[in-house]
Specification:
Layout lengths: L1 H5 L3 H8 L17 E12 L5 E24 L5 E26 L3 E24 L2 E26 L4 E27 L23 E25 L2 E27 L27 E5 L6 E19 L3 E19 L5 E22 L2 E12 L3 H4 L3 E4 L4 E4 L7 E12 L6 E12 L2 E7 L5 E7 L2 E14 L12 E15 L5 E2 L7 E11 L4 E10 L2 E4 L8 E3 L2 E12 L3 E8 L6 E5 L13 E6 L4 E8 L2
Parallel strand pairs: 15-19
Antiparallel strand pairs: 1-2, 2-3, 2-30, 3-4, 4-5, 5-6, 6-7, 7-8, 8-9, 8-10, 10-11, 11-12, 12-13, 13-16, 14-15, 16-17, 17-20, 18-19, 20-21, 21-22, 21-23, 23-24, 24-27, 25-26, 26-29, 27-28, 28-31, 29-30
């Protein structure tokens, strides 16, 4: 317990400190080849009485080893560099997964399914940072382990009455999410910029009598969340004035419960008298057992009441939907969903004052969809719906943590409220033949209280990331999609084996800050493109595809007066895949991802010319993630 530890005598704290291993020295880093192994078993057993049992079971094991160099900068209001770092990140990830689904069908009228999914991820990341912060040179090492587990199970049923067209479905579900970060270690050596060229002056760890986790700290966090769900739906036809109306009614219940706790420890000087040479020791010995002593180091507990929270969400929803055809070519569907949502969170702020949220909302969410068939292959659609966006627990919790990947302190905002969105859509679509489509649509979205990711100033050069509601925002645009088989070119028979597709959108979003100041909605790109060409020859048992994706620049963090918004630059991604069937039941696949390997880049658009200029803008961070190549073999027994 943190409160008990703080009041212990110094000798007891030193004794406790010796129990921690000196694990600040990074483990060896070797570039292993990534691997992805999967075994799947599927079978179906039909019984004489007309019933059937289906089973799908699979297991997955994969790992990945990756190294990335990242440039990170930040700036003061006068564009002076606050810090400039170069990070080398080594990350090793292992994933273990399992799936087991069972389905029992009774004479094609009743079906009961039991679905289970398990996924366990272990991430080990080492970040070695070098650079300048204000007037200091720094060298830091950050070692981060994280275990993430997801378990999901569902029991569901479907029951049909073929004579009157009644259909009843139901679902019971349970999901558990765990995240355990057992020992996030940080250590930083510093040296004055004035002594940069003097090799006789060493880097030191500026440990003091108070906890400063960035110079020598260990953070332990644990999160678990349980989610329970149930829903039931009934679909049935009703004859009204010789017109068949299809009704659907349903009810949904979801309960989430989350517990989060962190323990924040840091190395401090054990007394007024201190052996200063200890701060110059290398990373593999500085915090060793023999240095946990009087005139040396000891661990102090810096855990606060704000470092834990409990939260829950309770959603009840019911709906009624009507689907009806009018004069054969018109189809009208619409309904009303009524949601009752209660969200609770208990924690403390940094002044140790209790925070107890108990937000309740009742929302009426109508929707309507009108469709007209111009001909058997072409439809015109007009739709309206209202949706809500609820803040996540993490967005509400006031707990602060340091995200080494973003070089940011991140904290929640307990004052967030849920957002409303009115969606309007118009779409024309045609299907010339099987697998081919041509469509055009336009849309308009009106947001009330949308949640955005923001930054604001902390102490010194630290910038904090949080979340806020903005009163109003809009998003409008046009979207098109084309998927066509190239056989219509009729150059040769093989053109039938090619399919071309493209979809894209042009979007304008706007948040009104004042009568004269407007900006795009955070996270919304002004355009996006997805396209590609696919080839498959059944005769040769061979296929290949080239895919292209691009999104326009978008705001990732909303700034504040004196600190401009941060944009993610546009980036093109090209992927390639080729496959060949072997031995009748085998298939060999070669994938090359992100062939162009363009830089991921975030910046402040200082000269407001809507593009990144190396000399005119502030570079916040950039990295090349590298292209990836994988070779896989599948075999069906």
């Amino acid at each position: 317990d943190a409160a008990t530890y703080v009041n212990l005598p110094k000798a007891d704290k030193i004794s406790f400190s010796k129990k921690f291993t000196n694990s600040f020295s990074p483990l060896s880093r070797s570039g292993h080849l990534s691997q992805n192994n999967q075994v799947t078993l599927g079978t179906k057993k039909a019984f004489k009485n007309g019933n059937a049992l289906g089973v799908i079971v699979s297991g997955t094991y994969r790992n990945a080893d990756n190294t990335v160099r990242v440039k990170r900068n930040d700036y003061l209001a006068d564009r002076t560099i606050a810090y400039s770092y170069v990070d080398t990140q080594y990350k090793y990830s292992t994933t273990l997964g399992a799936l087991a689904n069972f389905s029992y069908t009774i004479k094609d009228k009743n079906k009961v399914s039991f679905k289970n999914f398990y996924n366990h991820v272990f991430d080990n990341q080492i970040t070695e940072r070098k650079g300048t912060n204000d007037d200091q040179l720094i060298k830091s090492t950050n070692l981060q382990l994280a275990e993430k587990t997801l378990f999901s199970t569902q029991l569901e049923g479907e029951h049909r009455m073929q004579k009157d067209g009644v259909r009843f479905t139901w679902n019971l579900s349970y999901n558990r999410t765990d995240r355990d970060e057992p020992d996030f270690r940080r250590i930083t050596y510093v040296k004055s910029s004035e002594d940069a060229n003097d090799a006789t002056i060493p880097y030191t760890v500026p440990v003091s009598s108070s906890v400063q986790p960035q110079f020598g700290g260990r953070l332990f966090t644990k999160l678990n969340e349980n989610a329970y769900g149930a829903n039931a739906n009934l679909a049935f036809p009703v004859m009204v004035a010789k017109q068949k109306l299809n009704f659907k009614v349903g009810y949904l219940k979801q309960i989430k419960k989350r517990e989060f706790a962190a323990r924040n420890l840091g190395y401090v000087k054990s007394g007024i008298k201190f052996d200063n040479y200890l701060t110059r020791l290398p990373i593999d010995s500085i915090f060793s057992d023999e240095n946990m002593r009087d005139k040396g180091f000891m661990i102090e507990d810096n855990t606060n009441a704000v470092d834990k929270y409990s939260a829950s969400g309770d959603l009840n929803a019911t709906y009624l939907m009507i689907d009806n055809r009018i004069l054969k070519k018109f189809r009208v569907s619409g309904g009303l969903r009524v949601e009752s949502f209660r969200q609770q969170l208990n924690s403390y702020n940094y002044q140790d004052s209790l925070i107890s949220l108990n937000n309740k909302q009742i929302d009426l969410l109508p929707s309507v969809n009108l469709s007209y068939a111009l001909n058997p292959k072409t439809n015109v659609r007009l739709a309206y719906s209202r949706t809500v966006g609820k803040p996540e627990f993490r967005e509400l919790a006031p707990f602060q943590f340091y995200d080494i990947n973003a070089s940011r302190l991140i904290e929640g905002n307990p004052n967030l409220i849920r957002s409303n969105t009115d969606n309007y859509d118009f779409k024309v679509e045609t299907y010339p033949s099987s697998g081919q489509v041509l469509s055009f649509s336009t849309f308009y979205k009106s947001f009330t209280n949308p949640i955005e990711q923001i930054v604001y100033p902390g102490t010194g050069s630290v910038v904090l990331r949080s979340f806020q509601n903005v009163p109003k925002a809009i998003s409008a645009g046009v979207e098109g999609e084309l998927r066509v088989n190239l056989g219509f070119i009729k150059l040769a028979e093989w053109t039938n084996d090619f399919t071309f597709f493209v979809n894209g959108a042009v979007i304008r979003s706007e948040v009104k800050i004042s009568d004269t100041v407007k900006r795009p909605l955070q996270g919304q790109s002004p355009y996006l493109i997805n396209s590609g060409i696919q080839y498959y020859s059944a005769k040769l048992g061979m296929g290949c595809s080239i895919l292209y994706n691009k999104i326009g620049r978008r705001i990732t963090e909303v700034g504040y007066p004196g600190y401009e918004d941060i944009y993610e630059n546009h980036r093109s991604i090209v992927d390639f895949q080729v496959s060949k069937k072997l031995f009748k039941k085998g298939e060999l696949k070669l994938n090359v991802g992100d062939i162009l390997n363009q830089e991921v880049l975030f910046y402040q658009d200082i000269n407001a010319n809507k593009k990144y200029d190396e000399l005119g803008d502030n570079l916040i961070n950039s990295a090349k993630l590298g292209y990836n190549v994988s070779l896989g073999f599948n075999y069906r027994f």
